[in-house]
Amino acid sequence: MEREAIQEDESGRLEPSVTEMIQRAKRRRLLDREASVRLGIMRHVYIILDLSQAMSEQDLKPTRQICTLKILEDFIQEFHDQNPISQLGIITTQNKVAKRHSELSNNPQRHLDCIKKLRELPARGEPSLQNSLEVALSSLRHLPPHTSREILIIFAALTTCDPGEIAATLQKVKDANIRVSVVGLAAELHVCKEISKDTGGSFSVSINDLHLKELIHEHLEPPPASVKMDHTLIKVGFPHQINADAKPALCMWHLFPLKHFDEIVAEEISTKHCYGCLKQFTGCTADKRVYVCRTCKQVFCFNCDIFLHETVHSCPGCASNPTISQFNSN
Amino acid sequence: MAGDGCLLVMVVDLHPQLAEQESNVHNYLSACISFANIHLAANVKNTLAVIAANHLETRFLYPQITGKTVDRQKDGRLELLCQVDESIERELRNMIVPDPKADQTESLISGAIGRGLLYIKRQETEDVLGKKVHARILVVKISLDTGSQYLNYINTYLTAQKISTPLDVCVIGSDCGLLQQGADISGGYYHCVQEVSELLQCLILMYQADVVTRKKLNVPPPDSVDYRAACFCHRTLVDMGNVCSNCLSVYCKAVPLCTTCNVIFQTDRPLMKIVKKKK
């Protein structure tokens, strides 16, 4: 946030201006998500983590390694929450070799144990992009063709030590329809940028720990499905009953996203309270704008708007309207 | 925990089918109101919200948008309880309508649960000290289930699970599989009573205890929850189904084309590929 952008209001207070900015930022993130794009929800993601000498730098506190692993811990939890039918795996690279530390699986505990072990591992040597891509490739290429295959590289070094021509590996990655994204900790590298560009992934370099977290967490959302992806019918067994520990996981909201609400100035409408939480619109900055569902025309406050779109994914106004809820089900 | 108090959000079903027997209505409503009173009286810090749902709308019975001032104490009763009763009674009169055509409909319970979740969320954000609000939702349901709100239900269940709010369900008459799943997912209780006359007893015995106290109590062993999905083509429950890799629609037989998302399935090609690679 820029200092100049903050303005005092008539009474000389800064708080309303800041509140408004926070609200803007939150909502922009919502609007960025494009609705009605075919998403690859059956994801197989390998995280390639650089554990070379460069990870022991202290520009992220306490060290790059500890900071990144902490962020990954949160990421793994969230990833399995939001992508219940997806799988993660972890590969590290140091001393010019790549090693698979945890196989593709959808058990978050296994990955968290792995992260814990990686904390103890000293960061040393040079990383090898080619070797780590080959390791990921060796298991991703055998997956059924209807799944989304992805690699997320977290790279701190400015060099890579490869045994052969990396362009050949890159071609193989491309042929296997794998999407490679790179998050850099230090600076932009040409090779990383090329890889992500060629495979349709994203490339970014973090400026600090918060930014790094944001960049990594961007990969929680399933990416748009690749056009080359096949579609198949998968045989699935449904249990008559399950034991209490195994919670069923569902990922419906990626399939039926909630449409954005319209932003309206609170003074222009007659409704003076939020339909969801009964909050009264008092005219303070937080309530200056209210949000109207396009389908059921009910009015919601800012917090409810964010909560509905980020967590609930269905509108209680529409669900409380017999005509709309009937129509949606058909 | 005991000192913190707890927020109870009651979702009460007011489907016209309730009115088929005059005595039912009275017993049902008085059980719900009594339970609300018990909850408030049990701890000074306990708070309450009551949302009603029928086949046409959902409505907050308590609290009211216009925060009415507490009346003066009447006949020795606690002012708050008096206010709750009055508020609920007033809104109930506006909401209960005899509708003979309502037989084939179900109450909009999922909408009411959704509003309840938003209400809980607001209490959490408004709490200045950032204290965790111990909230739970209780659904009392009497009408039949048609499965038309499936998606809304599932969304509310997952939200309840995410904000760790148990969703208790007490149904009257026949079992409701969908709500049973909700209770199971969010860690609440599910129970089915046969008669309206048993309702109050059941509510007090099973649903009055807060989350911490519950761990120390024995409950009737839960029934097994049926997690089978209904196929999209015939609406029958399937043990083994075919699922579209693109949109996850469930089919009971192998079909060449997904009717939900219109993709054509490559029936044999991908299988061949895998077999070849294995060799």
Automatic annotation (TrEMBL), chain A:
Single Gene Ontology BP annotation: regulation of transcription by RNA polymerase II
GO molecular function, one term: zinc ion binding
Predominant localisation class: nucleus
Gene3D superfamilies listed in its UniProt record: von Willebrand factor, type A domain, Zinc/RING finger domain, C3HC4 (zinc finger)
Compartments in which it is found: Nucleus
InterPro entries linked to this entry: C1-like_sf, Ssl1-like, TFIIH_C1-like_dom, TFIIH_SSL1/p44, VWF_A, vWFA_dom_sf, Znf_C2H2_type, Znf_RING/FYVE/PHD
Residues in VWFA domain copies: 44-220
Keyword Chaperone listed: no
Keywords for the protein's UniProt record, in alphabetical order: DNA damage, DNA repair, Metal-binding, Nucleus, Transcription, Transcription regulation, Zinc, Zinc-finger
A GO cellular-component term linked to this record: transcription factor TFIIH core complex
Pfam families: C1_4, Ssl1
Family named by the database record: Belongs to the GTF2H2 family.
Name this protein carries in UniProt: General transcription factor IIH subunit 2-like
Organism: Homarus americanus (American lobster)
Gene: Gtf2h2-L
UniProtKB/TrEMBL annotation, chain B:
Example GO BP: regulation of DNA-templated transcription
Source organism phylogeny: Eukaryota, Metazoa, Ecdysozoa, Arthropoda, Crustacea
Pfam families listed in its UniProt record: Tfb4
InterPro entries the record matches: TFIIH_Tfb4/GTF2H3 (IPR004600)
Protein name: General transcription factor IIH subunit 3
Keywords: DNA damage, DNA repair, Metal-binding, Nucleus, Transcription, Transcription regulation, Zinc, Zinc-finger
Organism name: Homarus americanus (American lobster)
One GO location term (cellular component): transcription factor TFIIH holo complex
Name of the gene this protein is made from: Gtf2h3-L
Compartments where found: Nucleus
Family statement drawn from the similarity comment of this UniProt entry: Belongs to the TFB4 family.
The protein's role, per its UniProt record: Component of the general transcription and DNA repair factor IIH (TFIIH) core complex, which is involved in general and transcription-coupled nucleotide excision repair (NER) of damaged DNA and, when complexed to CAK, in RNA transcription by RNA polymerase II. In NER, TFIIH acts by opening DNA around the lesion to allow the excision of the damaged oligonucleotide and its replacement by a new DNA fragment. In transcription, TFIIH has an essential role in transcription initiation.
Zinc in keyword set: yes
Subunit structure: Part of a TFIID-containing RNA polymerase II pre-initiation complex that is composed of TBP and at least GTF2A1, GTF2A2, GTF2E1, GTF2E2, GTF2F1, GTF2H2, GTF2H3, GTF2H4, GTF2H5, GTF2B, TCEA1, ERCC2, ERCC3, TAF1, TAF2, TAF3, TAF4, TAF5, TAF6, TAF7, TAF8, TAF9, TAF10, TAF11, TAF12 and TAF13. Component of the 7-subunit TFIIH core complex composed of XPB/ERCC3, XPD/ERCC2, GTF2H1, GTF2H2, GTF2H3, GTF2H4 and GTF2H5, which is active in NER.
